[in-house]
Every structure is written in structure tokens, then in C-alpha cells.
Amino acid sequence: MHDFWTFAGSYWWLAFPLFGMTMGAINGVNRRREVQARRRHREQIELIRAQGGAVPAPLAPPVDADEQQRIIAAQDAVTHRWLEYELDAEKLISYPAMSDGRQPLTAAFLRAKKVADNLRPRDGETLSPERLREFRDAVTDYEVAFEVAERDARRVKDAGFSPAERKRLDTAKQLLTVATDQAATPNERQLAYKRVREELDGLIWLSDDAVDELEKRVALELPRGTDPAPRTPPEPAV
């Protein structure tokens, strides 16, 4: 025994290569087991397919419900900003390009809005991770398209109209002030409102919702037959 420890003390350095050889052998065994496990897994999948069965899909990571709500809130915020133009006649007169689907940037925004609306989850629905990514990308495109369209509309204002048309827009804006002035008489408000509709006719299309909002501000109910004939809105360039 004494001779063994004397030998071990003199040749202690041999322990390192021996240890390395041992660990290498263990790692080799582990790798072979892993390869065999993968092979068995593939064979099982092929067997299931050959028998006409469905191959179980890998588990998808859970969807972050808070992220889905954040994306919905971002979409609603853009829609709210857009509706400020759609429902406010004064804003439409000031920035008419925002209501004109024939404008390329406005048309691009409307297309992006449609895509985001189609991908929006229904009430109580939780999107899959893949659909959530699609929805998030669509809302991002929606936000960017609105920003671009709004910036351009505020830049050009009424530059796309002739001098005579711009004069009509200015007149409509002045009459709108009278139509929504509660200090004016009901007759004055109604007359100004009719003039506003006449000046805008053929220049800017007011949606039914915009008309409803305007009539609430004017605080009157128009008798039947006094409202100008409805016009077909311009088709957006989609």
C-alpha cells in the first residue's frame, strides 16, 4: 500500500488525462443516447403519419393578454384620431384631403385600416402567437399610414382646389361659425347650416355621421325635404 501511494504521489499528473478520458467517454455515451432518442422520435412521427394519424404540434408559447390589449388600445387611439376628422365638419373643411379617398396617402391609410380591422380579435377572443404578430404589424402599419396621411393633409390643406373653390371653402367655414353659434336665432342657425351644405356640395363629402354631429351642434331638426339631396361619396383608390 505504501508503494502505491508513493507511486501516486510521484505521478499525480496522470490523473488529469485519465479524468479527461473518463468524462469524454461519459459525454460520448450521452450524445449517443440523445441521437438515439431523436431517431426514435422521428420514427414515431413517421409511424403516426403512415397510419394516417395527426402529428401532435409543438406547444406554442402562451399569448400575453396584456400585449393584445395594448395593441387593441393603440388601434383604437388611431381610429379615434381619424374619427375626429370624419365627424368634425370644421376639420374636414380645413384639411379636406383626410376625407378624400382619391388621395394616394389617404387611400393607403384606408387600406391599412381595413387590414388592421380584419385582424382585430373579436370580443373575448385570444389570438394565437402568430396571429398576434400579424395583428401587431398591421396596427403598426395603420399608425404609420395615418401619421403620413395626416401630415400631408395638414401640409397641403386646400391646395388641391381652384381659387373659386377655396373661396367657397372659406365661406363655408365662416357660415359654420354662425350655424353653431348658440347666440344666433334658430332661423339664423338653420339658414347658415343650409348655406354650409350648399357651399360644400361637390367639394367635400360629409358622411351621415358627420351630418348628424353637425346637426347636433347646430341644435336643430331639419324639416323633411329641406336637406340637400344625398350625394354618392368618392370611391377610395384601393
TrEMBL record:
Q: Enumerate the transmembrane spans.
A: 12-30
| Domain of life, per lineage | Bacteria
Which controlled-vocabulary keywords does the entry list?
Answer: Membrane, Transmembrane, Transmembrane helix
> By what name is this protein known?
Uncharacterized protein
